Amino acid sequence: MSADLGRLLAGVGAVLLDFDGPVCSIFAGYPAPQVAAELVDVLRRQGVDVPPDLASEPDPLEVLRRTGAAGDHGITRAVEDALCAAECRAVETAEPTPYGREVIVAARQAGMPVAAVSNNSAGAVSAYLAAHRLAGYVLPVVGRAYADPDRMKPNPEPILQAVLALGETPGRCVLIGDSVSDIEGARAAGVRVVAYANRPNKADLFRGAAADAVISSMGELARVLLEPGGVAGMR
Question: Where are the domains of the chain?
């Protein structure tokens, strides 16, 4: 795997990192199902008749997606505002991903700029990076488009926005993500993708989704980036 990663990264000019997963577990201390339930409460206060499957939805981003699909922009904004506030609270107790920091620092040492491309809000991502002394390493931060969930990954728009900001071409960028939507978004954007299988059942799923490489630890990526004469010497 190290050799494969080395070859993959040799032609890369910039690293794009998904946030929740590769960098941290944003909802480690403020569980995602709790946040999703709070968003459902927002819907009810807005007079929405919430169907049972949405009432039990554990993913706050999916609550936002379904709200946006209903087409009421005022209600979508209310849910978006509540989610942004929840995410900013969540980063205070977010759990750093092992070796996530090392990947960021090693990529920069190898001469590759690092951007964040997340379906979480940019404000929450930036707050986490600042709190963990990583803000100077990760620029730009491309977060979720406000109250427009159709523009979240797998839509390639945020990925291409980061590529443009970095002054690179898609083919010279790699996205590190932990979901099929990351893989699909990267493919649509023409960006290489390393899938981080942070749970064992994800590995086969990611291979089936045609990730360029699959890793089970961010440490695998950090080691390749830090190898003497490795990626930096091959670029």
Answer: 2-26+94-228, 32-92
21 near 216, Cβ under 8 Å?
no
Q: What is the pLDDT of residue 232?
A: 53
Rounded CA separation 153/65 (Å): 11
pLDDT band at 24 (very low <50, low <70, confident <90, very high): very high
Residues in a beta bridge with 24: 20, 96
Q: The pTM is what?
A: 0.95
Cα→Cα distances 92→29, 111, 125, Å: 8, 30, 11
Helix axes 32-45, 60-70, angle to 10 degrees: 30
Mean pLDDT throughout 159-184?
98
Query: Cis peptide before 154, with omega less than 30 degrees from 0?
Result: yes
**Cβ within 8 Å of residue 36, ≥6 positions away:** 57, 58, 59, 60, 62, 63
pLDDT at 67: 98
SS3 of 174, please? strand
Peptide bond into 140 cis (omega under 30): yes
3-class SS of residue 117:
strand
Candidate CATH numbers 3.30.70.120, 3.40.50.1000, 3.30.450.20, 3.40.50.1370; the one for domain 2-26+94-228: 3.40.50.1000
